[in-house]
Structure formats: structure tokens, C-alpha cells
Amino acid sequence: MSHSPRTAIAQGVLTPRTLSRKYKRRVVKSCALLLAPLSVGLAACSGSSGGNSLASTPYDATDAVAVNADADSKDVDPNQPLEVTAQHGDSLTDIFATDASGHVVPGELSADGKRWHSTGPLAAGARYTLQVSTENDEGAPGRRTLRFETKPASRHLDVKLGPDSGTYGVGQPLTAELSHPVKGRKQRELVERALKVESKPYVDGSWHWVDSKELHYRPSSYWPAHASVTLRSSLKGLKVRDGLYGGKAESVRLKTGDRIEAITDASSHVMTVRKNGRTIRSIPVTTGKAGYETRNGIKVILTKEPFVRMTSASIGASDFYDLPVHWATRLTNSGEYVHGAPWSVGSQGVSNTSHGCTGMSSANAKWFFDNVRQGDIVQHVNSAGEKMAPFGNGFGDWNLGWKKWRAGSAVNHGKPPGSSPADAARLRPQV
């Protein structure tokens, strides 16, 4: 019966003494990758003990290994790579470095097994455990374990996650606002991968960089009704660039309610409100008149305000008005609302007479106000107005097609869907 060297080692047919040092290190490294971390040397790679030095109790390799981080040090420079060097004729067989969260530090071992250095950055202000396995000239295994801490960051990339935890409509995007600009693709990829989104049920979603300090996240279509979504950041301590490290951020947990969609046809002057696909109300409305046409497209409810004072000066209208407005549901930062407009009841369902808002009777406005929430969808169609911008005036995110949306991701850019799980405008009411 013949054995491959690896199979023979596992069955105890061959001992390390019958293999070349170079081949032996390759076998040991392979075992470590499959089984690491091992609690005692690399003894798990062998099923036999008689004469096999790998089954021996590891010797203390403290004097056989030099590390450029002192044991129990609290001021190791995270900008410098971690380096391990074998001394006195010993060789390195396995290096395993992790932080307190279990993140493994990648590294590279020299061909002669004498030197190892990290190939990924260390986190700032983090605690690390370094486990080094060695082998002396006689094939006996050694072990050294040391712990150290890196210096805290001098500058943090803080991130504000949004929205606040709570219950929202199915159109609510997730947001991440950064304290410093991030422009390089590698840096953006690191930040984006550290922003974790989990949903039940699962949906395929993607981040999109609005600019160098703001990201939005959404699925390919609206969130499912009654879903649970968690947004968290694992950016803390990660090196973004020289002198800038990730800061901590509070997690966001939200739920979605029923799927509420209000579709307003500016040509027929009717708003149709649907709940989970079923029409529950048809409302006569008036939208923007010539020169003040309501924007076409999908908008997401931003806030609900029981009372707003609206004036012509707020939007620079040539005709004067100063009106108390009740049951106002805001759609844009620039002041587009759905609201009660008792002064235009005669035009509702007939013609468009507003300065851009969607007006309806006070009774219908209160019903709408009471039955929608932040994150619900309001869509305007067949208006002569401009298209709702994706960013900069509220949440127009859904007006960007899925392919273009994914193209704004540093991680998903150029990848087909499914291949991997702006300053706001001034608040100006319009009527």
C-alpha cells in the first residue's frame, strides 16, 4: 500500500525526520491552516507518537524568537508591520496573530522559514495575541505566545449611522456619514466592507457613495414589509490611511411596516394609496401649476409636521401668500409636502394650482398623515416638472436604476447583481 507524504504523515507511517526540512515546513503549514489555532504545537498533524518529534510537548521558544513588539507593551506603533525572526538555528513553522475580536492578521513567511512579517495593517488601540510555532535543528517543536497593545489613534474616522433605530416604511435608505473625506478606492472599499447590513428576510443590497463623506444603502427594490434590518460598523481601529483610523459607531436596528405607496397622477389629479399592493383610498389632489411643477419620480417621506407656516418668500414666488398649513408630510428638503389645502378644494381632482406641493382637503390630509410613516413611498407621475434628483434634496435614491446604483459601490463596482451578498438643500416650504 502506497501513501502520499501528507497521508503518510497523518497516519504515522512517515516521521518528519524522513522528509526534507523544506517539505516538512510545507506540510506543517498546511496542517496549521486546516486546524489552527492548535492548543499544543502542531501535534494534531500526527497520529503517531513513537519517535515523532511533532508529538512532543513544545519547548519554550522565547529565546528562539525575536519580535518587534515587546510582550505586554501598550504602545506598539500600528503603522509598522509586525515582524518575527527565528534565532539560534531554529525555523518558524506557523504564525497566528489575532486581535480581541478575532480578526486575523495576514502575513508572509520567508522561503527559508527564518522571517515573517504582517502584510495587513494593525488596528490602532487594539489588543493582539501572537502565537509563534518553531522547530529546532533536531525537529523538536517550540512555541512562544505574547500579547501586546497598539497605540490609540490620533485621529478617528467617525461614522454616524442612520436612521435612528425604529420602525420605517419600505423605502427608507440606510445612511453612513463620515467625519473625514475618503476618496481612494482601496480606502473606500475598506470602509464599505466594515459597514455591515443584515436583514430578515435576506435581500440583495448595496452601498452607494453619494460623495466622499456620505454613503447610502438600499436593496434592489423596496425592503420587504415587516422586515428586520441591522446596520453596524466594524470600522473601529482599522487603518484607513496614515494617521486616520476608524472610530466606533452605534448600531442601528430598524423594522419595516406595511408596504405603503402613494402614487399621484398629476394629469388625472388623483392620489392612489396602496397598502401591501391593495388600493385603500383614492384622493382628489392638486399639484404644481405652470412654473412650479411638482417633481416627477419616487420620493421617501422625511418627516410629518402637524403645522407648518408657508410663505411665498420661502421659495421666491412672485405671488404673495402667507398660510398656516396643517397635516403636512414632507417629501423633500426644499419644501415639497403633501398637506391640507382647504383654499383649493375646488381645484382638487380638476386642475393643478399649487406651488409644487400636493394639496388635498383637510380631512384627506389628516387621514394621509395618520396612515403613513417616515420611509413610506410617494411617487409622482405625468407631471411636467423635472425628475426628482437621487441625492441632495431628500431621499430620491429609488430614482437611480439598480445597475447604476451598484456602480457607485467600491465593493460591487463592475460586478453583476447577486455576485456578492450630499449637503441637504435649505429647508424651504412650498405650497
Describe the structure.
This protein is mostly beta strands and 431 residues long. The protein folds into three domains: 5-149, Immunoglobulin-like; 157-256, Immunoglobulin-like, CATH 2.60.40.3710; 260-399, L,D-transpeptidase catalytic domain-like, CATH 2.40.440. Helix content is 11%, strand content 34%. The strands form seven sheets. A five-stranded mixed sheet has the order 22-21-20-28-23, with no helix packed on it. Strands 1-8-7-4 form a four-stranded mixed sheet. The longest helix has 15 residues, at 21-35.
Shape: elongated
| Largest sheet composition | 5 strands, mixed
Overall strand count: 28
- Which architecture of the largest domain per CATH? Sandwich
Topology:
Elements: H1 5-11, H2 21-35, E1 59-60, E2 65-67, E3 83-86, E4 91-99, E5 107-109, E6 115-118, E7 127-135, E8 141-149, E9 156-157, E10 159-162, E11 166-168, E12 174-178, H3 185-194, E13 195-200, E14 205-211, E15 214-219, E16 228-233, E17 239-241, E18 244-246, E19 252-256, E20 260-265, E21 270-275, E22 278-284, E23 297-300, E24 303-311, E25 322-330, E26 337-340, E27 358-360, H4 362-371, E28 377-381, H5 402-407
Parallel strand pairs: 1-8, 9-18, 11-19, 20-28, 26-27
Antiparallel strand pairs: 2-3, 3-6, 4-7, 5-6, 7-8, 10-12, 12-15, 13-16, 14-15, 16-19, 17-18, 20-21, 21-22, 23-28, 24-25, 25-26
